[in-house]
Amino acid sequence: QSALTQPPSASGSPGQSVTISCTGTSSDVGGYNYVSWYQQHPGKAPKLMIYEVSKRPSGVPDRFSGSKSGNTASLTVSGLQAEDEADYYCSSYAASNNYVFGTGTKVTVL
Amino acid sequence: EVQLVESGGGLVQPGGSLRLSCAASGLTFSGYYLFWVRQVPGKGLVWVSHISGDGTTTSYADSVKGRFTISRDNAKNTLFLQMNSLRAEDTALYYCARGGLPAAFVYWGQGTLVTVSS
Fold this sequence. Notes:
Chain A is mostly beta strands.
């Protein structure tokens, strides 16, 4: 149950795009289309942004998109806005009926 | 308003026990997977445990297996986490979450802080 690997930080100017990677193994990210992404502002609970690799829950802007290739999933935030500055975590369903989160990425809007 | 409210956290000595509760309002727990996720302040999220909608299937992270027990009371719309043999490394903010979309943590509480220290 090792954490999925994410870059510690990412940044972009308002209006630009930023992409965050999430690397696992064939026992989690690569083995299932059950990757989800969460946004967490300081002192707040996480918020679901993407589920099943690329689906957006109701209310999440279409600036947020997800994809997966092999053992690596990605979250792209297009048209960056100031309120997108937050920590982002990926999560994957894993073998043996477990779940695993990523190490987290701090997104800074320059 | 949809709310999940955790309670039961606090300061406990190593080897001690705590029972966390998570009560829902504005949404139902019945039929949905429920989860416990923890986070050391300033660190990342860690899945702890989950329970199926009917309560028949449970799963635990290796780090808590044999020490923690998840349970639910659908009639009272409440989720529990019995934590025994607590260790310093169990110190964290504990969130409850409800499913509702495939393999996703859809609704989250605000967390209850557990501190294990002598």
